[in-house]
Design a protein that fits this description.
InterPro entries: AB_hydrolase_3 (IPR013094), AB_hydrolase_fold (IPR029058). Residues 142-347 form the Alpha/beta hydrolase fold-3 domain. Keywords: Hydrolase, Signal. It comes from Pedobacter vanadiisoli. This is Alpha/beta hydrolase. By secondary structure, this protein is α/β, with parallel strands linked by helices. It has one domain (11-371): Rossmann fold (3-Layer(aba) Sandwich), CATH 3.40.50.1820. The chain has ten helices and eleven strands. It has a nine-stranded mixed sheet with strand order 3-4-5-7-6-8-9-10-11, with helices on both faces. α5 crosses α6 (221-236).
Length: 372
């Protein structure tokens, strides 16, 4: 599967569409994805070669995914245009192919999906709304932002994460297809993210959600966006999320932290890619210090309780740690966990990687506690 830009209310294929069915978002229907459930037993994966030099502590299941990703032979993302980079294989493709190769059974989705276009400044963006099949609501509501450095990826690439949160929390999840760079420069993604949150607040009741129980979550660039949504909600005096889950978030501009140095050449994210993402999204290098990008420069007081998830083998590991410390210093309640032996992007790999299953359960428990 190649990365293609998601088209509004289009007939799109998700991570496990190759295995089961596609998602027709023009009507309410079941999703198809590789999200693990409690009854699913992960396959035993064994890597072919030795642990990579950049990740000697990598777990075998994680290494197997990385080996599969490397085996596609794609050109390094940072050498490509954004358009060509979006055609590269993704970690989701590697997971999908490993699932097929191991003849794994895909759990029956416990959510239905609905596609919705909403107006943003000068354009429209697409939302994918996941609703639990069980119960009649009102459900808690999570607004979720995918990763991709503000430049690549789409709702399909991160379908597993959004679906897992909906299923395990028993919540409606709105996954946001904010506009990407370089076609849409900073702060377009940030503004789109907040507009989607505002829409969720205003339409919660119509979605059968509880308007008093809304949280935000995101991975990587999406983790940055989720935190910014909380900051903007506070500043604009609209309803604050009750909780935020930030999964290996982009949180500061220094690319010489210990984790950046240790995992400079890691996969699927490395330092060169982060430089490339930054150049594609920002208008000038000065914007790297903007509080929207470098969250540690922002006023963090009064933000909701926060869960931060980090991966050991990840240039952004220290971003999450530093942000957690800054939030605590600002008086924010923070709970955080680091997962050893896994890389950036591990969170959505629960069917194959045990640490991803554990991280999803942790995030779900944190959200359920906040919604109570």
């Amino acid at each position: 599967m190649k990365i293609n830009m998601l088209k509004p209310i289009a007939f799109v294929c998700g991570v496990a569409a190759l295995l089961t069915a596609c998602i027709d978002e023009s009507k309410n229907t079941s999703t198809s994805d590789s999200t693990i459930t409690d009854s699913t037993v992960a396959a035993v994966l064994r890597p072919v070669g030795p642990a990579p030099e950049w990740g000697k502590t990598i777990k075998p299941e994680m290494q197997t995914v990385i080996e599969k990703l490397n085996g596609y032979g794609d050109k390094p993302l940072e050498t490509l245009s954004a358009t060509d980079a979006r055609k590269n294989h993704t970690p989701t493709d590697a997971v999908t192919d490993l699932i097929k190769q191991n003849n794994m059974v895909i759990p029956t989705p416990q959510v239905d999906t609905l596609g919705k276009d909403i107006d943003v400044a000068g354009a429209k963006i697409h939302l994918r709304i996941y609703t639990p099949k069980k119960g009649n609501g009102p459900y808690p509501l999570i607004v979720y932002y995918h990763g991709g450095g503000f430049v690549i990826a789409n709702l399909d690439v991160y379908n597993a994460s959004a679906q897992a949160l909906a299923e395990q929390v028993g919540a409606i999840v709105i996954s946001v297809a904010y506009r990407l760079a370089p076609e849409n420069k900073f702060p377009t993604a940030h503004n789109d993210a907040f507009t989607a949150y505002e829409w969720a607040v205003k339409n919660a009741v119509a979605l059968k959600a509880d308007p008093a129980k809304i949280a935000v979550a995101g991975e990587s660039a999406g983790g940055n966006l989720a935190a910014n949504v909380s900051i903007m909600a506070r500043n604009k005096h609209i309803m604050l999320p009750v909780h935020q889950v930030l999964i290996y978030p982009i949180a500061q501009a220094d690319m010489n932290t210990k984790s950046y140095k240790m995992y400079e050449n890691a996969k699927p994210l490395n330092k060169s890619m982060m430089t490339w993402f930054t150049e594609k999204y920002l208008n000038t290098s000065i914007e790297m210090q903007d509080p929207k990008i470098s969250l540690i420069n922002a006023n963090l007081k009064g933000l909701p309780s926060t869960t931060i998830i980090t991966a050991e083998i990840d240039p952004l590991h220290d971003d999450g740690v530093i942000l957690a410390d800054k939030l605590k210093a600002a008086g924010v309640k923070v709970d955080s966990k680091n997962y050893e032996g896994v890389t950036h992007e591990f969170f959505g790999m629960a069917l194959l990687v045990p640490e991803a299953k554990a991280a999803q359960a942790y995030a779900a428990d944190q959200l359920k506690a906040a919604f109570k």
